[in-house]
Amino acid sequence: MDTLFFITSKIVQFCIEPLNWVIIFVVLSLLFLGLKKPHLGKRFLLLVLFDLFLVGWLPTSEVFLRALEDVVPKTNLAQISEKDIGGIIILGGAIEGGEIAVDRGEISIGAAAERVTKAFELIRKYPNLPFIFSGFSGRLSPKGVSETDAFKQLIAEQGLADKSAHYENQSRNTYENVLHMKPMIGEFGEKNSDGALKPWLLITSASHMYRSVKIFQKQAIAVLPMPVDYQTAHHLQWGRFDLVDGAQNWNRLTHEAIGVLVYWITGKI
What we know:
This protein is an alpha/beta fold.
């Protein structure tokens, strides 16, 4: 069932991303032109232009993405003592493992690199706290190095102590991240004098934080959000047109929208 859920979520996300509809509209336009119905072909070409405008004009995606990134505020570490923190959680999704890492012998960090750099910062700041990196692969057909093995290599390359390191290498999505980490958090997490688990610092992208926090709450795990990888500022870029950045924004939006909706329907949040 979990595998079917994973595959379905990927298919649905592909189907609703605006840029993917350009392909569909172009194919339909060519089809109608071939059927000697130029008026319909022209209409679908107009839809292509509208779709490209929707994707490329950044405010159309930024207004929604900014709202999503601002839902969960960042924890102010200056107001929290180390003794009040149970550990550090790093969610995968930033490391490019796979065949490239095997062929090249180097680990590449993707667009969400701040998940990794913030992890390094907090591991150095709190060397006595346990930390868990969670992630196998978000691809339908993973090959080569897993995200967990890639992160282990990065930890070694950075010369960071791994005495408090723990790894979860089975999860393919956020729900599986939390489910597989739950017993590890209970086993390795710092506890209060009454035996209750202290909250863990949670590192993930700002756009992904809302869904992540909701899943942890559903599993009765307290977390302190440390959102990173912000893609929007406090103001919209009204005069900017960029298909690449726009496509990436819409990809994040559709990914999270589908995730939140499906997780809510299936009772995961």
